[in-house]
Amino acid sequence: DTGVSQNPRHKITKRGQNVTFRCDPISEHNRLYWYRQTLGQGPEFLTYFQNEAQLEKSRLLSDRFSAERPKGSFSTLEIQRTEQGDSAMYLCASSLMGQGAVYEQYFGPGTRLTVT
Amino acid sequence: AQKVTQAQTEISVVEKEDVTLDCVYETRDTTYYLFWYKQPPSGELVFLIRRNSFDEQNEISGRYSWNFQKSTSSFNFTITASQVVDSAVYFCALTRGSARQLTFGSGTQLTVLP
């Protein structure tokens, strides 16, 4: 049983550089979510996809953040011109989609970003 | 707006003690879902339970039990006979019936001492 995978697991970058993270969801899951988690806090929602459509992106932290899911399978999250405040754990989750039903989200191990 | 409050930041118990983690939520929706997740030191969030707003039955799964009370907007989690492996951060989360993103509380760090 393959869970949600994320790559890389750790990323150290210098301020001003661009970074891209990848998420591979559970294969039969239509929905894919991105969250950010800072130390001592719960995950904070960023955006989500239903198949290849990005249905909610108003919570992306700034226009430096963007996400794609081009073929409705894996997704990428890009941060341009990174800032030290972007240092956090970036979590991906996936879930089933049902008519009027809400299913639990399964999370990947996360990508820890450190901006120096 | 939705909000989840986990007032207990840290709890420490001795193995075999029972422990209850509190969760209080705020929402204006009549249809919503509540969740508990566990985040062990390895970091990966593990799903524990989902409950919808129309089902107030308490649930027991092994040493875990959950008490959902709409009257007090609470969804508390009890671990019976705690074990060292239960040491983790536990998060309560909420989503609206029509929305898809989870709103998390700030978590409770549980430490079970041998």
Uncertain segments of chain B are none
Biggest beta-sheet profile of chain B: 6 strands, mixed
**Shape label of chain A:** globular
Radius of gyration based on Cα positions of chain B? 14 Å
Biggest interface: A-B, 28 and 24 residues
Please give the number of β-strands of chain B. 12
Helix content, binned percent of chain A: under 10%
Output the number of helix runs of chain A: 0
In quaternary terms, these chains amount to heterodimer
The portion of residues forming beta strands of chain A comes to: over 45%
- Give the total of beta strands of chain A: 11
SSE arrangement of chain A, N to C: EEEEEEEEEEE
Terminal Cα span of chain B? 41 Å
Q: Largest sheet of chain A, described in full?
A: 7 strands, mixed
Global shape of chain B = globular
Q: Could you report the average pLDDT of chain A, rounded to the nearest whole number?
A: 92
Alpha-carbon Rg of chain A, integer: 14 Å
What is the helix/strand order of chain B? EEEEEEEEEEEE
What does this entry look like structurally?
The complex is a heterodimer of chains A (116) and B (114). Chain A is mainly β. Chain A is 0% helix and 47% strand. Chain A contains no helices and 11 strands. Chain A has strands at residues 5-7, 10-13, 19-24, 31-37, 44-50, 53-56, 65-68, 75-79, 88-95, 106-107, 111-115. In chain A, strands 2, 4, 5, 6, 9, 10 and 11 form a 7-stranded mixed sheet that branches. Chain A has a 4-stranded antiparallel sheet with strand order 1-3-8-7, with no helix packed on it. Chain A starts with a strand and ends with a strand. With 114 residues, chain B is an all-beta fold. Helix content of chain B is 0%, strand content 54%. Chain B contains no helices and 12 strands. In chain B, the strands form 3 sheets. In chain B, strands 2, 5, 6, 10, 11 and 12 form a 6-stranded mixed sheet that branches. In chain B, strands 3-9-8-7 form a 4-stranded antiparallel sheet, with no helix packed on it. Chain B has a two-stranded antiparallel ribbon with strand order 1-4. In chain B, strand 5 and strand 6 form a beta hairpin. The radius of gyration of chain B is 14 Å and the shape is globular. Chain B starts with a strand and ends with a strand. The chains are: A mainly beta (116), B mainly beta (114). Chain A binds chain B through residues 31, 33, 35, 40-45, 48, 50, 55-56, 59, 89, 91, 93, 95, 100, 102-110, and chain B through 4, 33, 35, 37, 42-47, 50, 52, 91, 93, 95, 97, 100-107.
